Amino acid sequence: MEAHKNSVASGHSIDRKSFMLGMITAFAECLAGEAKKLAFSPPFYPADYKSLREEAERICQEQGVFLWHEKNADLPAKKRLHWLVLFKFPEELKEYKKLRQEGFNPALHFEKFTAMLSYGSVWGKKADKVVPRMREKRPVLDSVARILLKPGDWPIQSGARPATPPQELRARRPADKRDGR
Which neighbouring-strand residues pair with 66? Predict the structure, then answer.
């Protein structure tokens, strides 16, 4: 049987399956060490799930974290991508599902999910004293979409992350607002 043209089995210069499992492993380690609250696997075509599932579950079990399969039924069928939601604590998945039930999708409303993905956020003792910021903002390219997807297959027209990164939003705020005054 011939592999689906958009599946993990299709030919690319980089082994897509290993790339995705490597990212899943890295995020699972971040979750296990509680450096992140929630993480997404790289986006994948629906046909990829069967090939990824077993090893992704094993990685998560080894790291003491869990995963949930996001099928994105609210995205157009021709551009539908899936991902795995990785989490250590059930309340984080509950919060994610609540936002999804409110009609938000990370592919279209990324800014709604940045806090639970731990982008630019801190928690723990004296977290309120920390002012997260980037030391230097540099232009970046979307390597994940370039490696994993065919051109135009990501549902966002302007790139992988349409939302302004939290660090840039903070940098745009007046100094007194950044310092909590």
Answer: 87
In a domain, 7, yes or no: no
**Residue 5 counted as domain residue:** no
**Which residue segment(s) compose the domain that 104 sits in?**
16-178
Q: Could you give the CA distance from residue 70 to residue 155 in angstroms, rounded to a whole number? A: 15
96-133 per-position pLDDT tens digit: 999 999 999 999 898 899 889 988 666 677 877 877 66
Task: Decide if 88 is inside a domain.
Answer: yes
Question: Is 2 within the bounds of a domain?
Answer: no
Q: How many independent structural domains does the chain possess?
A: 1
Instruction: Using alpha carbons, list the distances in angstroms from residue 40 to 27, 64, 102, 173.
Output: 8, 16, 19, 28
Q: What is the C-alpha R_g of the chain? A: 17
Q: Helix 16-32 vs helix 49-63: angle between axes, to the nearest 10 degrees?
A: 30
In order, the DSSP letters of 134-157 are -S-------HHHHHHS-TT-SS-T
**Residue found under tokens 């790339």:** 19
